């Protein structure tokens, strides 16, 4: 692939990230792109009988999308790309208005594995969704995105803490309430501000899922602009690549030999244990229902799974130049060297030799490089949705990811070429050529 397509892909990725500060916005951004490509949304209460073409189901911060080629048999195997929509951050408490010593502050909780120092002294906005009164007593939902410098978690001056550079941990309970004004706390102030931004009456707000995000826009870095720097690369790089691949598979000249599927789950960063997480039956139920909608039997469902393959796509670690001893000495991925294939014999990743063979063969056909990744044996590695999906569906699964630095930071880094490489490989796997 030439440099131009890679830069075009990453330009589009940066637009996707900027529009998606919360998992709910990720789903909305993905749905918008799918609908533009001719996909249509199905609801659980709809009749799915005979549904073909591009289809998707969204639920809060999760989205399952698939493409049924015309005339596809009910037992046609699936090619699944699994990703997640959530990222570690600071989330607003139910009773948020607080403060001390003449400052008005907002109470937050820590979501996922957050390197707290990366959230200090940053200009923060608010995003998420509001649950509102609706007609006939049925609640409705409204997304909200305030890209304004409303809040900040100020770091203690070094004059008041000479040990700050000695690795002293930030107090997780007392020192992360962002400031946003002077004066005594005003009950309901945050709600009024957020409701106004959404164009809603605060009296109609019954609940919310709100979080903070760094308002600095994503961009490029380096002498040759060879790096992408942005919030939430983990895991919006993979969601964006999965959406791109699914659309390309559905609209390309060659009809897919399989049923390509994108599964974007929520709550991966906290264990995936929710109705929209990878441990839930969400994907299983939607895929089995899609088989039944095409007249399939239980036998067809079993055959579709028996021939299925899943790529679990999540960010990976590039070798860190200042901490190279933390990495396996023989597995040191670098940005722009292609996606990594992640292996862990203790099944923190679901990769085996069969999965490696399918992925690397697709990489060859796509003309994209790839790199192996293994964690240092002295340190436990992270995990992804791969093992959960493999265990839930019983399908061959490979864990892969774009290598980057500063994972889980408020602002992460990866190579400019790797997101495009990943999308090209995923497209090849989905189409099955």
From TrEMBL:
Zn(2+) binds at residues 84, 159, 408. It holds the Pfam family Peptidase_M18. Its cofactor is Zn(2+). Its EC number is 3.4.11.-. Gene3D superfamilies: Aminopeptidase i, Domain 2 (2.30.250.10), Zn peptidases (3.40.630.10). One of its GO terms (cellular component) is cytoplasm. Belongs to the peptidase M18 family. Coiled coil: none annotated. Keywords: Aminopeptidase, Hydrolase, Metal-binding, Metalloprotease, Protease, Zinc. GO terms for molecular function: aminopeptidase activity; metallopeptidase activity; zinc ion binding. One of its GO terms (biological process) is proteolysis. NCBIfam families: PRK02813.1. This is Probable M18 family aminopeptidase 2.
